[in-house]
Amino acid sequence: MKATTSDNLVLISNEASKNLAEKIAGEMGIPFTRMIRRIFEDGEIYHAFPVKMAGRDVIIIGSTHDDQSQQELLDLINGSHFWRADSVNVVIPYQGYSTMERAKPKSGEIPKGITRTRQIFRAYPDFVGFVDLHSEALLHGHTGKIHTKHIQTDSLIVEKIKSLGIDNIVLVSPDYGRSKWVAGLASMLNLPHTAADKDRFAMDRTMVHQVSSVVEGKTVVICDDMIRTGGSIIQTAERCRQAGATDIIVMATHLVLCGSAREKFTESGINKIIGADTYPGVHNDSLLDIYSVAPLIAQTLITQLGVTSH
Fold first, then answer.
1. Measured in whole angstroms, how far is the alpha carbon of residue 118 from the centre of its chain?
2. Could you tell me if 106 and 191 lie in one domain?
3. What CATH number corresponds to the domain at position 115?
4. Do 136 and 234 belong together in one domain?
5. Are residues 146 and 210 in the same domain?
6. Count of domains in the chain?
7. pLDDT over threshold 80, residue 199
8. Diameter of the chain measured on Cα atoms
9. Do residues 227 and 110 both lie within one domain?
């Protein structure tokens, strides 16, 4: 991809990700361009670009956590092409359905992680970056003409854990599937780590059996890529307490926290969840400690597009 200048960039977003997009624009030193958006009485949504798009390098920030946000992202990509943007570059802070990247044989399941990502690729953006994917399989759902990147937040997580100023920490993965990633974080921090022994017995139900005694007498930081219902993390926390942990902190990039997840965490005695601002609507409060991925995304885009100041 050819280099571009900062004054040739147009940074827009779908409605859900506008707060994060504003932060990214600030980090890049460029304006955030707010789409003209109206909703008609029949529910149809009107969009218009408020600036000239022809020949511009467009950046679109858009989480796809619900159907409307997915469709809006597709509209923005296709609209940018319609008005002859020179390049269309997408960053998806949170990719919806990312845990559904495969279908069991003869199940008839639709692997929506793949099919929905292919919808985005078939709109032909030039670049798509995904933040902390559940599965990197989604990166490869195109014909090879689109440049993709897994934007991993490991460096931000490491700095956040360091900033806690807590000694005697052990990192814990809630299952063996994430243990390699957690081991990498532990290596960067020079900390011990372990993984819980978890079984899945239904689509959204799990059972955590045991945790290593390495957690005894330590503050446990349970690390995962996302929290939806929180069930397995709460079970992991309980097993850690049974194994002698003195305190529990939870850390995950994507804080979905659906249903009564917040209440369940509070009732279980967990009073601190650290996460990123990738999932729309999360903010700092008495339970959540939020850090921003805006600087990381901004630097990724500057490098990817070869942005110069003139």
1. 18
2. no
3. 3.40.50.2020
4. no
5. no
6. 2
7. no
8. 62
9. no
C-alpha pair distances (Å), 172 with each of 104, 175, 222, 281: 29, 9, 5, 27
> Same structural domain for residues 101 and 230?
no
Cα gap 198→207, rounded to integer Å = 6
Q: In this structure, what token pair is assigned to residue 201?
A: 């017995």
Residue type, 107: S
Tokens 């990502």 sit on residue: 117
* pLDDT tens column, 5-41: 999 999 999 999 999 999 999 999 999 999 999 999 9
pLDDT, one tens digit per residue, over 124-143 is 999 999 999 988 888 887 77
CB 37 within 8 A of CB 46: yes
176 CB neighbour count, 10 Å cutoff: 11
Q: Judge if 162 and 135 occupy the same domain.
A: no
Q: 0.70 cut: is pTM over it?
A: yes
Q: What is the pLDDT of residue 278?
A: 98
User: Which of 214, 194, 208, 226 shows the shortest CA–CA distance to 268?
Assistant: 208
**Residue 120 and residue 174 share a domain:** no
String of DSSP letters for the chain:
---EEGGGEEEEE-GGGHHHHHHHHHHHTS-B-PPEEEE-TTS-EEEE-SS--TT-EEEEE---SSHHHHHHHHHHHHHHHHTT-SEEEEEESS-TTTT-----TTS----HHHHHHHHHHTT--SEEEEES-S-GGGGG-S-S-SEEEEE--HHHHHHHHHHT--SSEEEEESSGGGHHHHHHHHHHHT--EEE--EEEEETTEEEE----GGGTTSEEEEEEEEESS-HHHHHHHHHHHHTT-SEEEEEEEEE---TTHHHHHHHTT---EEEES-STT----SSEEEE--HHHHHHHHHHHHTEE--
197: containing domain: 154-291
Same domain, 49 and 159: no
User: Does 108 have pLDDT greater than 60?
Assistant: yes
